[in-house]
Design a protein that fits this description.
With 158 residues, the protein is mainly α. It is built from 8 helices and no strands.
Length: 158
């Protein structure tokens, strides 16, 4: 049986539109309490951050990545505001989730390519995903890792 396909340009266009939406207005509002909490942990030295997060409900991976990201953006993009730099990492995680969502839907339903395209469209333009892709919290990373783990698990049991 011939496997049906969706044009690659369409998938890339939807992912690009999702990227543009997630990159808009990253510094339009000030940081709020939870975002400041994330920045506090992320800007501590790694050893101290690990000690502090031992009493926190969130694991330290996002804080560690955010800390490294803030150092990198301070060097490479010195004019970028702190809120925009911090939110940009979450936006990148949100953008990376888009093709993973498509890939997972394609893997789970190989004979229904339009279903994968619909899943991609829904995630790319989801107001909730857009919102959480611009928040300095671990939500974007959590979804990205969940999609990657689900895809890996699905492929391993097939």
């Amino acid at each position: 049986m011939k496997r049906r396909t969706v044009p690659l340009w369409l998938v890339v266009t939807i992912c690009a539109a999702g990227a543009v939406l997630r990159g808009l207005r990253l510094d339009w509002q000030p940081l709020w309490w939870d975002e400041g909490y994330s920045l506090y942990f992320a800007t501590e030295p790694l050893g101290r951050m690990l000690t502090l997060t031992a009493n926190d409900i969130h694991p330290p991976l996002h804080y560690a990545l955010l800390g490294g990201w803030l150092e990198l953006t301070a060097r490479l993009l010195p004019g970028l505001s702190m809120p925009a730099a911090a939110r940009l990492l979450s936006a990148i995680f949100g953008v990376l989730a888009l093709p993973l969502c498509y890939a997972l839907a394609r893997a789970m339903f190989p004979n229904r390519p339009r279903l994968a395209l619909i899943a991609l469209l829904l995630l790319a333009f989801s107001p909730i995903h857009l919102y959480y892709s611009q928040e300095v919290r671990m939500y974007g990373l959590a979804l990205l890792l969940l999609l990657a783990a689900s895809l890996a698990l699905w492929r391993s049991v097939q």
